[in-house]
Design goal:
Blueprint lengths: L1 E6 L2 E4 L4 E9 L3 E10 L6 E6 L5 E3 L7 E6 L4 E6 L8 E11 L2 E6 L3 E6 L1
Parallel strand pairs: 2-11
Antiparallel strand pairs: 1-3, 3-8, 4-5, 4-9, 5-6, 7-8, 9-10, 9-11
Length: 119
């Protein structure tokens, strides 16, 4: 069984910063792409940023220059450094990882961590 556990969410003022972390644990063989998604009330879940096992990154246009995704493969952990936060960044942030276990390869999701940015 695989678990993704997010941490680091909270309440911050506009212009502030937060760092999210997501640690994968369990009977993991290989972790491929890891990423962060977010879902605001009444909106669809959307990609924020993703990073491959080799370090190639991809960002949504609205986050380029403000957010930085990174990962520590030895710790099976992905991070999201969020700077210059805006009220419109308020959402539930989910970690996602493409993982191979003894039962095969599939995507896994964390439970989400709330980020609230006040104006």
């Amino acid at each position: 069984q695989v678990q993704l556990v997010e941490s680091g969410g909270g309440l911050v003022q506009a212009g502030g910063s937060l760092r999210l972390a997501c640690a994968a644990s369990g009977r993991i063989f290989t972790i491929y792409t890891m990423g962060w998604y977010r879902q605001a009330p009444g909106k669809q879940r959307e990609l924020v940023a993703a990073i491959t096992s080799g370090g190639y990154t991809n960002y949504a246009d609205s986050e380029k220059g403000r957010f930085t995704i990174s990962r520590d493969n030895a710790k099976n952990t992905v991070y999201l450094q969020m700077n210059s936060l805006k009220p419109e960044d308020t959402a539930l942030y989910y970690c996602n990882a493409d993982i191979t276990t003894n039962t095969g390869r599939r995507p896994y999701w964390g439970q989400g961590t709330q980020v609230t940015v006040s104006s």
